[in-house]
Design brief:
Layout (H helix, E strand, L loop, with lengths): L1 H26 L5 E6 L6 H8 L9 E6 L3 H9 L5 E5 H9 L4 E6 L2 E2 L2 E4 L13 E4 L5 H12 L8 E4 L5 H6 L5 E4 L3 H8 L3 E5 H4 L6 E6 H6 L1 H20 L2 H8 L6 H9 L1 E2 L7 H13 L9 H4 L3 H4 L3
Parallel strand pairs: 1-2, 1-3, 7-8, 7-9
Antiparallel strand pairs: 3-11, 4-11, 5-12, 6-9, 6-10
Length: 317
């Protein structure tokens, strides 16, 4: 009888131990890893600062920075769901959204920080007529800035020979006189200025005040699945933008992990850029949409409320 009672007690104990183990295992959730695509440019500064802190590991998530060599490669990965988000040209993201990719823009990457570079012999914009001018991609703020610069100075976009060129090639192409100028993300403008092969023809704010360029986008399926992680991520991204705006020694240290650039070039590049106000505003977004339609780059850009998700940003106020 005692033996039977002992066996029953042992069986119950084993069941309880097993149940407790299953409960512990099921309650333990792994932190989501947020894979964020980027190109090694100054415009992704807040991400560099964020990934620099605690090695990119936080209470509710880890961040994994995924480097790309071109915008098309980054967008292919983003559209296919191989990464969860990216620092990307707003026009490329808008076009993807227009084509049915469910993306949400949650913050700006920066403000200002684009320069129109020309060779030293170009004195006025009209001197560019008939010459070759480089942009990184037709779906870029840089292409829109070129259009606005030509309009500002009474010229047509078609008055220059516009070519798409990988950003790292632009400073050499200018030095070799293969192009008369270019507009692109930093630090590639600063490189030509520091080397003495080019000069600033216009700063972006002189042509188009408060123009948008790179934005932080996330796939909406990630947001829906990981709202707590997304909320923390956006909060710390904004804080990291404020840290990047200090442009101190820590900024140079953080940026140096993701960009291979001389300190003199980075210093000049940072003088031109702002990271402290990263909310996407409707008026500026609508202007981007309007110019894209005018230039034939989009037939029906996504509406502001359809594409921009300020809910995480607004909770920080």
């Amino acid at each position: 009888m005692l033996k039977r009672i002992y066996l029953v007690f042992l069986a119950i104990s084993l069941i309880l131990i097993s149940a407790c183990g299953q409960t512990s295992s099921s309650n333990k959730k792994e932190k989501p890893v947020i894979k964020i695509g980027y190109l090694p440019i100054t415009h992704a500064g807040p991400l560099y600062m964020l990934a620099h802190v605690n090695g990119g590991e936080f209470e509710h998530y880890k961040i994994e920075m995924v480097k790309f060599g071109s915008w098309p490669d980054l967008m292919d990965a983003l559209n296919a769901g191989k990464i969860d988000g990216a620092s990307v040209l707003i026009e490329l993201a808008m076009k993807a959204k227009e084509q049915g990719i469910d993306l949400k823009a949650v913050a700006l990457g920066h403000k200002d920080g684009n320069v129109m570079i020309t060779s030293p012999e170009i004195k006025e914009t009209k001197d560019l007529v008939g010459k070759t001018y480089a942009i990184p991609h037709k779906f870029s703020s840089h292409n829109l800035l070129l259009n606005e610069m030509m309009k500002k100075d009474g010229l047509r976009y078609e008055d220059v020979n516009v070519v798409e060129m990988p950003p790292p090639e632009m400073p050499a192409a200018l030095a070799e006189k293969r192009i008369a100028g270019y507009v692109v993300a930093e630090p590639f403008g600063a490189i030509s200025v520091v080397l003495g092969h080019g000069k600033v023809h216009y700063h972006s704010e002189e042509v188009w005040p408060s123009s948008y360029c790179c934005v932080l986008v996330l796939r909406n399926d990630f947001i829906k699945k990981h709202r707590k992680a997304t909320r923390e991520f956006v909060k710390q991204y904004v804080q990291s933008g404020k840290s990047a705006h200090k442009k101190d020694d820590e900024v140079f240290q953080a940026f140096g992990k993701f960009m291979q650039v001389e300190d003199e070039v980075l210093k000049l590049s940072l003088e031109w850029i702002s990271y402290d106000e990263l909310r996407i505003e409707k008026d500026e977004y609508d202007k981007v949409s309007q110019i894209m339609v005018e230039m034939g780059l989009s037939e029906q850009p996504p509406a502001y409320g359809e594409f921009v998700d300020n809910s995480f940003m607004d909770k920080l106020k």
